[in-house]
Design brief:
Strands 1-2-3-4-5-6-7-8 form an eight-stranded parallel beta barrel, surrounded by six helices. The protein is built from 15 helices and eight strands. The two termini are 15 Å apart. By secondary structure, it is an alpha/beta fold.
Amino acid sequence: MDAHGPLCVGIDPHASLLQAWGLRDDVDGLREFSLRVVDALGGKVAAFKPQAAFFERHGSRGVAVLEEVIAAARAAGPGSSNGSGSSGTLTIVDAKRGDIGSTMGAYAEAFLADGSPLAGDALTVSPYLGFGSLQPAVDLASATGRGLFVLCLTSNKEGFEVQHARTEASAELGTAEMGPAETGVTELGRAVGGTVAALMAARAAVLNAGAEPMGSVGLVVGATIGDAVGATGTDLVAVNGPLLAPGVGAQGAGERELATTFGDARRNVLASSSRAVLAAGPDPDALVRAARAAAHEATTALRG
């Protein structure tokens, strides 16, 4: 983020984007599209975020393309070595996995274990089976030097049904899941509003406590959520972790929205843009210009 600006470019091979690039909506088109993005922008942006669903919809051959994209990003550009042993451009695999017990452990091994072809530098995860259900992913990410982005406040219109909920049940569930050393997180969640979103942020804050320059358990916070951070009592500053902000550019969030939504936490924000950058392709120079423009816009809004 310091080297290239706080921009993550999503690799979202929608059928409509493939068509706009003159490519077929098949595995060959998927591969050409995705690797063109990596070739054009590798070493020039802070991170890529391939959306796993657009690869998985093509079956096993599509998943194989996702593996290629992750490997290509690791090899791309002059990036320095990082904690997961990779170099090149950081990759956040947007798979939003979340389950319990051994199943969550298996997801963690697939996306976070050294040697796995699906392991990028970070993984998006869903905490809505209880934050404690993510423990296998937390443990393996920590052991391998990778990161997590936990869904917290998303921009879809249905998100408020769970994320804004203010019930004693969410706090009581947190108490049941936590050990004695962590019960203060539940108290923090209750004190700042008792919402599910506030509790998720508070759990991440405990895991990131004392980390410099920030911890490795981040949150996904939509850039177009308006006043939801304040309305839910979610303390993003206390999280002390990266904040992945989808919705920049084509989805409507610009300088004003980013500054308003994230306030004093904005220096930890990694703004994610997909269509606003990808629509400039397939010309690689046009992709670079679009990415630089988006990075400049994010830098202006988030760094002051």
